[in-house]
Every structure is written in C-alpha cells, then in structure tokens.
Amino acid sequence: MRTDYCGNITASYIGQTVTLCGWVNKRRDLGGLIFIDLRDREGIVQVMFDPDLPEVQAIANTLRSEFCVKVTGTVRARPEGQVNAQMATGEIEIIGTGLEIFNKSAVLPLDWNQENSEEQRLRYRYLDLRRPLMSQRLQFRAKVTAAVRRYLEGDGFLDIETPILTKATPEGARDYLVPSRTHKGEFFALPQSPQLFKQLLMMSGMDRYYQIVKCFRDEDLRADRQPEFTQIDLETTFLDADGVMSITEGLIRDLFQQMLDVDLGDFPRMTYAEAMQRYGSDKPDLRNPLELTDVADLLASVDFKVFSGPANDPKGRVATIRVPGGASLSRKQIDEYTKFVGIYGAKGLAWIKVNEVSAGLDGLQSPILKFLNEEIVNGILARTGAQDGDILLFGADSYNVVTEAMGALRLKLGEDFELLEGEWRPLWVVDFPMFEEVDGQLHALHHPFTSPRGMTPEELAADPVNAISDAYDMVLNGVELGGGSVRIHDQSMQSAVFSILGIDKEEAELKFGFLLEALRFGAPPHAGLAFGLDRLVMLMTGASSIRDVMAFPKTTTAACPLTDAPSPANPQQLADLAIATVKKDSAE
Prior knowledge:
globular, 17 helices, 5-stranded mixed beta barrel, 588 residues, alpha+beta
C-alpha cells in the first residue's frame, strides 16, 4: 500500500513519486494551501495539497488530527527559507496528488501538547503509543533485544523456552496462582524466574542457554516494578563467576556501543562490604562523589548517648556525610532532611557546619558541639576531609538503619546539590553474604541455589553467618541491571543450605524433589545471570519508569485501565475449577 515510511523520505527522493500511509499529526490551512504533517513509525513528513487539484483539495479540507490516510505525491525540495532543521525530513516536502482516508478519528481523549495523567495514558495506550517518544522507545527496545540475541547466539547460547505453568520458586515475592481444572483444588504458579528450569537445562547438557522471558511476581509496585516483567536470562556450564561476568560485561558494553555509541570501558569490582560501608547501598551510584565515613571509634567515649550508644554497640553504627558547600543550608532545609531520613527509621540527623576550619571550634556551628571536645572534633574533620563551607551530617543508630537512611540521604543530597559526575558509571558488586538474618531466622540473600565460596557443606553448616556467596550483581548509575551466581551442583551442599534456611527434608522433597534428584545424576558446575530488560531499556532511553518502555504495563495497583483487568470471572468457569469466591463485608 505504500512505497516507503514517512521518516525515510530525504533529499535523495526529490523528483520521485511516493505513496505513504500514516496518521495526520497536524493540519494547517494557509489561505487555500492545505499542509499536513503525516506521521508513521519512522517519523514525520510535510505534505502540501495544491488548490489546482480540487478533488484532492476537498478531501484534504476534511482532515483532522489522527485521521488515518494514504497520500500519493511528488517529492520536492522545500522553498528557500522554509527548510526545517528540526525534522529529519525538513529539507523536502511532498506535493500531494492523491489522498485516501482509511478512517476518521474522534476527538482525542489525550492532549499531546501537555502532560496527561498516567491513568489516561494507560486507558488509551494505543493512542499514547502513537506519540513519537513512546514509539521510539519501543523501537529502541526491539533493537536491544535483537542485539542481545545476536551477541549471545554468536557466543554459542541456545534460545530455549521454559514453562509458564509450573511450581512455585522461592524468589521472595508472592506467586501468581493458576487453578487447574483437571486437578481440582490444585494450582500452578506463574514463574517468578526460570531459575530451576535453567539449572535443569545445564544438567541436561545444553551447555549455554538464554531466553528473553516473562516473569511474574505478586508484589507491591513502584516505578521500576511491574507484576509481569522481562528478563534476559542466561546460564552456562563449566564457567566460574569470572567467566559469566566476562560474557555479560561484554554483552552490555556491546549494547551501549551499538545503540548509544558509548564506550563503558572495563567495569570495576567492589565488594558488598565496601559498597555498604562507603555508599550505604549494594547498588551504589558512582556518579555521586559523596561517601559515608564511619566515626564510631571517635565518639565511643562522649557523654552524648545518641552517639555513644550505637558507637559501643556491636550492631550499631555512627557515620557522617560531608556535603561540599552544605554550610549554606538553612535550619528549615536541615529539618527537611531530618524528616527524610525518618522515612528509613532514623530518629534524627545531627549536623556540624564547617564555616572556617582554621578557627578550630570557633569556626564550627552545631548544637552538638557542647558534647564534643576539640580532639574529637579535629579527628572528625581530618577523617572526613572537611573544608570551609561544608556541612557534616551524622546518622547514629543500628547498623541497618544508619546504612539505609544515610545511603538514601546520600542519593538525595547528590541530586539536590547537583553533584553527579559523568554520564555512565558501571561496576560489579561481589562477595555478598550468603545469608541475612531477619527476626532471628537466616534467609538466602539471593536465592537458596547460590553456591557459597570456598566452603564444604560441613564448614557452611558450622558458620553460615560468615559465609560469602559466589554471587555478583551488575550495577549502572545506582540501578541493579542484573544479578547472578555460581549455582550449587552438589546434592549435599544443597541439602545443607536448605537445612540452614529451616527447610526440612520433607519440605525440600515436596518443593524441590525434582531438583535434588537431578543433582544425583552427574550435575555439572554451572553459573548464570539474569538482566532486567525493562530496567536496562529505561536507563538507556532516559525514561523515568519502566512503564514508559513497556507496551501495555499495569498501574501501581497492578490493574490495566485499557482492558479493565483484573475483572470478575464467569461463574461457570469458577464452578469448573471448583472455586468459590467470598464477597467483601460491606463494612470493610
């Protein structure tokens, strides 16, 4: 029906007759001369309808925004002085000689010249996706997935599908359950990831697997979460952590070079312990120069229990952030930062303004100075490298509260003071703890199939708290792009991990019997990683939410305004599934 896309028509087409299809982006009537901007997936081109063709002119006179049309015409150079350098097709225009309206459009429920609510954008997503920005993002995403496939297939990876209807896998979120009609009272679970199946593929001798796969998690949502999301999932045999990191780092570097003409260079490595100590996060944004400095040893003897309590508690922490130029903050602004850290459980935010270092205590300003002697203050100033005009902000509480609160404050200060340096700062975070303690119970920090580093099952059982996992996360600009690990390939080690997690033999057999059995039959060493495709594309396109790089996302309440899902089920369907629904109490 067409000879080319609108956005492809350039000066090389001058003199040619073309046929284009698309939507009327804008219509202008200039005293008998009718102009339209015709838009399709590839861009916009200007079309002019001359009054010397009255039949065509009559149809053009009825055009309105978003009419779907076909235009035939001759390409010519725009008159002198009318070149539009802002458009890829700005050197030319098309003199329309034929016009057909495929379909008229009702008045748009969206206003493309102003911000629309997210509810409106998702309700009329098919219109929202016509916007050039959204169209470009989805095209970019498609090119990313194509580049990923080329790279991995060139490295010997096989694209293998894994089941959608399966058993639950422990990924830390609720499962979406699917009732079985043929096995009444029993349920499938939608996979939170293909974790167990990709391990089984390695045990099956597939050697290198990848899949661009949908995953499902029933959890509370935020900007970078959706109930269904997409992973670039991969697994390998006979490779250690360094091997997997080398392949996946090469993949991301290749993507950025191809898609953005950006050389990310070699990725530095940082241990989990260092990341938490310096940045208060296991996914630090290295563009932000601010760091947390521990000062508990300097404050252990002060008569100020806000500091000395945590400083003398093995599970406490006292840390400070030096903010260059922060002495200009007003008391109101400091109070706002105090409220901010309160979100993360912090009870307060102590501070010292450094007006003049050379003046000693007289050059400082703070309500806490009365608790600190000159030796302690000098020690703090020296350790933080404080300069005239800085402010020191202090957190003192349990280790977890201080680390989380001050880590979040570091990010906010970096934005507020416009301190971010450089466009892209990747790194690997390694040497994660194997387990974390929550309410006295150990939980796997990643998942229970991650292998500990350099330990036997007996050594792990004897000292699980200090075990380090053979895991690795790729981080870019403070966003976790992907994470992976060397997997457990020995049945005795897997049983030891389950035991530490409080999963007894009966429960392990019930949930993971097929995996434990497979480990008995010559399971090879294997390791892998999964990237969040949505997050990756969000970062690369500069979008603020993964919803802006997904075709049909859900709202933050996991609903779809477009299709009105979820919705009540047909009573007969429920009866076939042996399911009864419970009506909410009207008083709730």
